[in-house]
Protein 1
Amino acid sequence: MTANTKKITVTDIQKKKNKEPIVAITAYDALFAKIFDEAADIILVGDSLNMSFNNKQDTLSIGINEMIYHTNAVCAGAKQALIITDMPFGSYTNEDMALKNAVKIFKKTKADAVKLEGGLRVANTIKRLCDEGISVCGHIGLMPQFVRFEGGYSVKGRDPKTAQNLINDARALEAAGVFAIVLEGVVSDVAQAVSKSVNVPIIGIGSGNQVDGQILVWSDMLGFFDKFKPKFVKRYLDGANLIKNAVQNYADEVKSRAFPNEEFEYKN
Ligand code: KIV
C-alpha cells in the first residue's frame, strides 16, 4: 500500500448509498487483483470463477477450500479494495453450517466480507453471521446457484408480484444486517424501486444504472469468456483475441528463430 492509499472498509461502502457509484469487479488471482485494485472499491472473489477460470457449466461444483485458495491469492494482490468472498453452493444450507464455513473463510483469509445468495430465506442465517462479526453482502434477483433448479438463467422482476418479492427480500436482508446487496438480472425500473426501498447500497449487475454501483465479472468485461455474452455485458477489451495474437506472434518468432535475438541474450 502506498502512503496515500487507504484500505476500503464496509463502512466506506455503506456511506456510498445514494452518492458516488460503487465500482466492483471480480478477480480470482493476485495478478489481476493487483491490476484492478486501484480502480475498484470492491473486488469479489465470485464463485463465477468455476465457469470462467475452471471452464465448468455453472457455479455449483466449487467448494469452500477452492474459494479460500482464490481469496488468499486475491488478498495477496489487492491492498486497497474491499474483498468479498462468495460462499459456494451448499456451504450455507443451515445457520450452523453457514457460521462454520464463514468463520473458516475469515480465519484462513483476509476477506473483509462474505456473500450469500437469497433473500428472506437466508435472512436468519445472515443475522447469525453478522452477530458473530462477519460482514455479509446479500445477493438477490438472478441467483446463479439456482440455475439447475430454475432450468436456466432468466431476468427477474418482470411482473408486479416478483417485483414486490424483490423489495421484500431487500428489506429482509437490510434488517438482517447486510452492508450491501448485489442485485443481478433485474429489469431496470424494478431495480431502481428496490434501491429506493432500502438504506444499504444496491450493487447492480444487469440491473440498469439507477442503483448505487455496478459489478461485472472481469473475464466477461475484458473479453476473455466467450461461451456466452449476456446483453448487459459491455466488453471494454478484446482480451482473448489480443492474447491469442500475441502468443501466435511469439510462436511464429520462436519457429523462425527471430526470438530471442541479441537483445534477449546473455553474452560473456
Ligand atoms: O460469482 C460472481 O461473480 C457473482 C457476480 C455475478 C456478482 O456473484
Note: Residues 10-237 form a domain with the TIM Barrel fold (CATH 3.20.20.60).
Protein 2
Amino acid sequence: MPSVDVPVALLGYGTVGASVHRLLEEQGDEIERATGHRLRVVRALVRDADKERRFAPATGVLTTDPADVLGDSSLAIVAEVMGGVEPAGPYVLELLASGRSVVTANKQLVARRGAELFAAAASSGAQLRFEASVCAAIPVIKVLRESLVSTNVHKIVGIVNGTTNFVLSAMDEGRTYAQALAEAQELGYAEADPTDDVGGGDAAAKLAILSTVAFGSRVPLEWVAVEGIEGVTQEHVRAARALDMRVKLLARATLADGRVDARVGPAFVDVRHPLAAVEGPFNAVMLQGDAIREITLEGPGAGGIETASAVVADLVSIVGTTGTGFLQDDPVWHELERLPPGDLASPWYLRLEVEDRAGVLERLAHELASEGVSVARLVQQPVDGHATLHVVTHEAPAGRVDRALAAIRALPESRGDAIAIPVVSQRGVENLGWA
Ligand code: NAP
Ligand code: HSE
C-alpha cells in the first residue's frame, strides 16, 4: 500500500518529547510497514532553542514561537509533552477547538481541565488521547475504554507514581530518601518539580483520570484525599519488612453504593499481595469488576522512552481512526518463521532418581555436559535406598535437556522417571532461594 506522510508537531522537546522523536525515527520503518503511515516530527516548541539536546532534531524543527505550531493548520496532529497547566492548557484548547487532534502526557492538565478539553474536541470532531498521562508505558486507558467497557469496574488499586516507588524500593535496600530522590530525578522519572511526586499530587491526578474513565463519571481532583511519602522513614520501612510487608504509595478508588472514594497515601502491603512485588520505577494497576473479577497491569511507570511509547501508540491510534485509517485492515504485514520448540532456552528443574553409589553422579554430570547443560544447584536426598537429585540448571535449550534426560533414563543406575520442569524467575538461577 502507498505510504501516507503524516507531519506531527510536539509541544515540548524534553525527556519525553525527545524520546517521541527518537522512537518515530528509529521505529519509523516498522510503524510504516504496520500502518502504512510515516509519522515525522516537523516542529517542536521549546523555551530555549539553543539548549543542547539528546537526540537533537534537524535544523529548523525547534521553535520558541507557539504560533509556529498553533497557527499552522497543516499540523493536524500535535503531541503535548511540555507539562504544566499553563500555558499547555490554552494551547491544547486552541488546537482542539480548531479541529486538530492532540495526544498528551500531561496528567495535571487532563485531571484539572479534562471536561473543557473533551468538550472542545467533541464540538470540532478532533481527538484527545491521554494514555501517557497515566502509568507511562502501561496501556491502562485503552484497556479501560475498550476492553473493559462492558464490565462494571468498581475498584482500582494501584502504584501509579514511578518516582515514589523507586524511592521506597531504594529505601528498602538501605539508601536514604534524599539519595534515592536525587537518583530518580537524574534518571528522568521525576516531574520538573518533584514535590508533585513525593507529595502524592502526581498520583492523585492519575487516580482522578483512572477513576473518571473506569467509573464513567468525572472524579474531580479535589475529591482525591492525598498524603505523600515525605513522612515515611527508614523505621517504617524496616517495621514493614519485619512484618512481611512493604511500604508502598497506593492510589485507591472505590465505587461503594454508587458513590466514589478516592485516596492516595502510603500503605503497608502484605508481601503476598501482587503490588508488593512492584519495584523501582514500575507501576501496576489492579482493576476489579463484575465480569472480570480482577486484572492487574504492570509495567514501567516513568521514563522518557517508556512514556514516549504510549504517546506514539496514541498518535498511531489517531492516524488509524481518521482519514486514511488502517485499523480495520488485516494486521499482518510480514511472515515470521516458527522457532523449533526445542530451541527455546530456559533454566530447568530436574528431578532424577538414581542408585546411591560411587561414580553415579559423575555419569549423570557427563550426560548433562554432553548436551551442554550446566548445573547451577544440586541437592541430594535419600529415598528408599536410592538417591533423589533435585537439580537446577543454567539456561539450556529444551531439546538438549530432553536428550540429556533420555540418556540419563537409559543408564543402568537410573531408578524412576527423570523429569524436567522449566524454571521461571526474575533472578538468575544462582540467586534462587532453595525452596
Ligand atoms: P521536561 O523534560 O521538563 O520537558 C519539558 C519540555 O517542554 C522542554 O522541552 C521545555 O523546553 C518545554 N517547555 C516547558 N514549558 C514550556 C513553555 N512554557 N513554552 C515552551 N516550551 C516549554 O518534561 P518531561 O519529563 O519530558 O515531561 C513532559 C510531560 O510528560 C509532563 O506533562 C509530564 O508529567 C509527562 N510525563 C513525564 C514522564 C517522565 O517519566 N518524564 C512520564 C509520564 C508523563 P526546554 O527544553 O527549552 O526547557
Ligand atoms: N513523575 C512521574 C512518576 C512520571 O514518577 O511516575 C510519570 O507520570
Note: The radius of gyration is 27 Å.
Protein 3
Amino acid sequence: GSLPIGEVSTEDGFRFTCRLEKEDIVYGLGEANRGLNKRGFRYVSSCTDDRMHTETIQAMYAAHNFLIVAGRESVGLFFDYPARMVFDVGYTRMDTLAVTCQRADLDLYVITGESPYDIVRQFRRLIGPSYIPPKFAFGFGQSRWGYKTRADFCGVVDGYRKNHLPLDMLYLDIDYMDHYKDFTVNGEEFPDFPAFVAEMKDRGIYLVPIIDAGVKVEKGYNIYDEGVEKRYFCQRADGSDFVAAVWPGDTHFPDVLNPEARAWFGDQYRILTDAGIEAFWNDMNEPSIFYTPELTAQTRAQLEKAFQDGSYTPNMPARKKPEARGDYELFYHRSIAGTVRHDQVHNLYGFNMTRAAGEAFERIDPDRRFLMFSRSSYIGMHRYGGIWTGDNQSWWAHLLLNIRMMPSLNMCGFLYSGADLGGFGADTTRELLLRWLAFGIFTPLMRNHSALGTRRQEVYRFENQDAFRHIIELRYGLLPYIYSEYMKAALSDGMYARPLAFAYPEDERAKRVEDQLLIGESIMIAPVYEQNAVGRYVYLPERMKMVRFRSLTDREETVLEQGDHYIGIPLEEVALFIRPEHILPLAEKGGQSVEEVDFENLLLLDFTIEESTYEYYTDDGYGKDFENPANRKVFRKSAK
Ligand code: MIG
C-alpha cells in the first residue's frame, strides 16, 4: 500500500521502495560502512563478525534499521525486523531507496517531523532512554588482545602512571580467563583476583573484563553443567545442545532470548561483580562461530568432491561466514514468541546478551551504574549498554569512518560508543595514533585497543611523551563539558555528536560536510585524518572562536569569520571551535584519573558577542539521581 512516503509490497517477501529526490540526504543505519549520507551503496543488517572493514563490506556487527530521508520534507523509517534485511540506498537505481527482507512480518514505523533532528528525537522517545555509564567510563582506557600475565597488566599501569599519562581503565581481553571459560579467571596468574581488582582500584584503575557469548563445553565447569541441566542453551531441531566452535573450542550459546535463561546468564556476572568488577565488554555475540561439527563434515565432503572434479577454489565453504554456511539455521531459541530458528531472529542475539547483563545489574545493585558495552547490537540495546565498533584497522580511512559513524550511532540511541583508537588490526604509527586520539578525546568511549601480533600501541611506547600527555590531559580537562553534554543528551533523547546539518538546517554547504561534527551544544570539531597533513580546510557555518590547544593550559584563541578556512593543525595540537554565544567549561587542572578532575571549579571559555549561557549538568557520577534539580546550574557570560 501507499504510505506518506513510498510503497510497500508483500508479494514476494517484503519490499519497501521510495523515490529519492536529487537533493535528498539519507541519514541513519547506525553502525554501517561508508559515509554519513548513506546514499550510493547497499547495506545489510545481518550481524557479522567480519574483521576486515574494507569499503566493500555491507554487513557489520550491528543491525540498526533506522533511517531518515531528508529533503524538502523529512521522514524517518524504522524497520523492526530481527533477521537479515537489505538497504539499497540508491545502489540499484540512484533515485530509489529499496528495503527488502524475506518475510513480510515486521513493524514499520514512519515518523514525520519538522527536521531530521526532530525525527531523531521522536524515534528516540519511541525506543527508550539511552544507557548511562558511571563517570569513570569517560576516562581513558588501555586495552590490547594479548595481555595475559599479572606482570603484563601491572606493566601497562606502570607505563601510564610513571609517565604521568592519565588512565582510568585497563581492559582484560580473553587471556585473563581460565581456558576462555566465561566468568573464570586464570588462577595461576590471579590467585587472589579480588585483591588484584582492589589493588588496581587503589591505583585509580578499573579493570574491564571481556565476556564472550559461547560457554565452553566442559564437564565439571559449573556454568556448563547448570546450563545443560536446565536446558538454557540453544538447541538443535532434535533437542540436543547446539555446538559452535569459538575460542574455547566447542561451546554452547546461552539462549538469551528465553527470559529464564537470560536471567540465569545475567546472574553469572555476579561472580565478577562480587570480586569488585564494575565494568564489562561483551564480545563475539553476533554470535560469531568459527565452525560447527555439522558444517565441517559437509565442508569436508564438498572439498573432497571439489578436489576430485577439479572445481576447487580458495573460496570454498570452510572460509565462508556462518550466515553463508548456514550455521544460523542449525539452532533454535525458546523465546516468548515460542520456538524460533536462530536465523529468523539473528540480529537480536547480541542485544539480548547485553540485556541479560543490564537486567542483572539492576538486581545486583539497582542504585549503581555499571560500565557495559557490546560488539553486536540491535536498536533497543542502547538502553542496556553502549557499543564499540569492532575490529577496525590502523588505517587513516578508519579514522574517517569513525568520525562519520559517531552521529549515525547517536541517531540510533548509542551515545556511549567509540572505536578502537589507533586501530585494532595492522600496525599503527605514532602519527596515526596521535591524530586518532585527538579525535578520540571527544568520543564518550575513549579506548586504545589493538590486536594480538600487531605493533604495540600503548602511548608510552612512542617517542615524545609530552605530545600524548597533552592530548589525553585535554580529554580530562574537557570532562566536565563532555560529561555534561552526554548526560543532557541521554536525559532528553538528544544527540551528543551531531552532523553540522542538524544545527544549521538552512545551510546548504553545512549539509554536505561529513568530516566535521558538533560535539554537544557549544563546540564544533574538525579532526585531521590524513597522513602528513599539517592542517586542513574547515568550513565554518557561522563566525566561531577557534581555540588551539598546545596543551590544556597553553591555548590560543582566534575569532574566524563564517566560510572556508585553511587551518594549520600541527601534529601535536588540537583545535576546536566555540559557537557564538556559547560557553565551554574546562577543568584546567585536569587529573590522572576521573576521580582527580575538579567538576566544580571551572574555567569558562566562551565566545560571547552579547550574552552566552550554558546549562551545566553534573552529579556524583555513580548513582541514578538524574532528575535532581541540584544537578543543573546555568553559567552566564555577558559582554558588558
Ligand atoms: O576473534 O578477544 O572484536 O576486540 O580483542 C577475535 C579477542 C575476538 C574480537 C574483538 C576484539 C578482541 C578479540 N575478539
Note: The pocket of MIG is lined by residues 145, 173-174, 210, 283-284, 375, 390-391, 449 (CB under 6 Å).
Protein 4
Amino acid sequence: MIPTLNLTRFIRQQERKHPHASGELTDLLNSIAFGVKIISQLVATAGFKGLQGYTGTTNVQGESVQILDQESDRTLIELLGSSGHFGMLVSEERDTVVTASEGRESGKYVVAFDPLDGSSNLGSNIPVGTIFAIWKKREQGRPASVEDFMQPGRALVAAGYAIYGAKTAFVYSVGAGVHGFTLDPSIGEFILTEEKIQSPARGRTYSINEGNAGQWSPPISEFVQAMKREDKDLQTPYSARYVGSLVADFDRNLKSGGIFLYPADKKNKSGKLRLLYEAIPLAFIAEQAGGAATDGIRDILDLIPEDIHQRSPLVIGTRHEVEWVRRLSKER
Ligand code: AHG
Ligand code: MN
Ligand code: MN
C-alpha cells in the first residue's frame, strides 16, 4: 500500500483551508522538517562520526554544550535562514536572538526552538528531540524585534516537536488539531501515521524527578504522595515513568495519558524548563489534543514571556491530573 499523505502534502492541504495563506508558514514548517531529518541522522551516526561528547563550552543556561546540541542548532539556523521567511530566531543554544540576514527582515514570522532536548541522554540510546514554536510578528512591514517573542502561547501560529528514538517522529499543530508523522528513512519522507491525536481524559503514570523531592513545595509533595497511595476512588497508585527527556515523557502522556511535572523548587526558583521553546510549544500541543498545561496554577498559554530564556515551572499532560495539581496549588 503506497502511503499517500506525506508531511509536505499534508501541510499544503492545511494551507489550502486558508485562502489568504502566502505559503510562508508552509515553507517554514517544511524547513524545520528538513532540519529534523538531518538531526535524526546526526543523532543516529554520532557514535562513529566523532560527534559524541562535549564542545567544552557552556551555554547561556549554564549547561555544558554537547557537539550534537551545537550541530542541531547550526542545522536549524542554516535551514531557517535560507527559507527567507523568518524575521528572527531564538535558540536555547544562543545567548541572543538571531536576526534574518540582510534584506530578509520582511519575514512574517519569528521562531523559537530547543534544537536538541534531553541531550544529557545522548551517551545512551534514550530518545531525544527537537521542540519549536512559531509566532507571527506583532506588526508586518518592519524588521522583527525581541518584542515579537513577548507574546503568549495563545498567539502561536504553529508549534511541534520531533523525537529521535526507535523511529523519528514529527508531531505538530497549526491550531487545527495535532498530527503525527513517522519518518520512512528508505524514502526520506515523513508519512502521516496519527491524524488528530486526542489525549485520554486521564492517565495512569506520573513523571517527576524524585531526586528533587526534598526541594518541592507542599502542594507538589502532597500530589506525588497521592500518586503513590492506594485509593480505589482516586484510582491510585499510578506508575512512575521518568525518561529525563521532556519530549519523550510528553509524547507518552499525549498519547497514553499521564502527567509530567518540573515544578519550581528551592534550587530552581522558576523551575528548570524554558518557557519560550519548551513549555509554550508543548502546552499548545497538549491543549490542541484536549490536555492542559500550567505553571502549577496559571495556564502556560496565558503567560507572556519577559525574557527569551526565562524559565517556568511546568505541569503538563492529561487534564484530570493537571487540574488536580492546580486545585492543590490554589488551596495553599
Ligand atoms: P535540554 O536537554 O534541552 O537542556 O532539556 C533537558 C530537560 C528536559 O528534556 C528534561 O525533562 C529535563 O531537562 C530533565 O531534567 P533533570 O535531569 O533535572 O530531571
Ligand atoms: Mn530541552
Ligand atoms: Mn536542548
Note: Helices lie at 7-16, 24-45, 67-83, 218-228, 246-256, 275-288, 319-331.
